[in-house]
């Protein structure tokens, strides 16, 4: 038990991010890349880094309105992320469908299928807004781990 | 070699280029950044042009007998500023406020909502949205003999009659309350 607590306490210093593109126009993905890769914004200061496998992830960032074609793959990948995880909807697409809402190929919004924790609207949101969302997600993650009230 | 040293010294002097946000509360924001939509309730007439042009269907206008309520859902607005462009009253603006991250519980609470109350026409009693004063001043800029406060309280058809009476040299119509 003590070892478990120690692990939890130390892991909150490095919440790894994972990106799922649920049919986005790539605008939000470019902003996500900007947030991580450009020294001016540098999300790694919060201890985050992008990882390539959903099984290593703690915070998942979803972009795009969930098209019917990609839906099942998105759900499969999302279910591979271990609990407790924090889901962040980036851009208006996953939150409400945005400009694609009610399109014939859209099965969103994403919270129809996936419990979302943090929303960050914008088309796309600017990197600072994404940083704010990651910081908020980090807080919710700590609550899920039982480290913060 | 010397070129490399020049770059090195310049970078040392400039300091880090990383923006300290979000570890400090403030960061830079360009003045013309398109952020959240704000509606000026003194100007909005409820004409519906904004909701007609809105690509993301983010604007809803609910009309009632005694007024109208205009709502913009920030979670659907793509900040294209088409509404600002086409609003004939210049009642919509996009503030450079980009702080938009919120928890899922607040999803339907992030809205801009304004309710505008209507007033009865002082002649026929029909409920109308009084024309904003600044707009009236522009409309009657060449008629400085007109009592703007009286005109403001008239519905469009009574105002038309009033303008016709004035052109014909007749006195203004009596107010309804005075007749009764
Ligand atoms: S929110 Fe806008 S920028 Fe982001 S994926 Fe959707 S359409 Fe593209
Ligand atoms: S905001 Fe402008 S365009 Fe929209 S209803 Fe009001 S006056 Fe008309
Ligand atoms: S900025 Fe564009 S998307 Fe947002 S409310 Fe105005 S017209 Fe609609």
Task: Explain what the structure shows.
By secondary structure, chain A is α/β, with parallel strands linked by helices. Chain A has one domain (12-145): Rossmann fold, CATH 3.40.50.12280. In chain A, strands 2-1-3-4-5 form a five-stranded parallel sheet, sandwiched between helices. Chain A is globular, with a radius of gyration of 15 Å. In chain A, 37% of the residues lie in helices and 14% in strands. In chain A, helix 2 (27-37) crosses helix 5. Chain B folds into two domains: 29-117, 2-Layer Sandwich (Alpha-Beta Plaits); 119-170, no CATH class. The mean pLDDT of chain B is 89. At the A-B interface, helix 4, strand 5 and helix 5 of A face strand 5 of B. Strand 5 of chain A pairs antiparallel with strand 5 (102-103) of chain B, so a sheet runs across the interface. The complex binds iron/sulfur cluster (3 copies). One iron/sulfur cluster (SF4) binds next to helix 2 of chain B.
The helix fraction of chain A, in percent, is 25-40%
The total domain count of chain A is: 1
The gyration radius over C-alpha positions of chain B equals 26 Å
Report helical residue fraction of chain B: 25-40%
Largest interface, C-beta within 8 A:
A-B, 35 and 30 residues
Number of domain modules of chain B = 2
Sketch the topology of chain B as an H/E string, one letter per element.
HEHEEHEEEEEHHHH
Structural class of chain A: alpha/beta
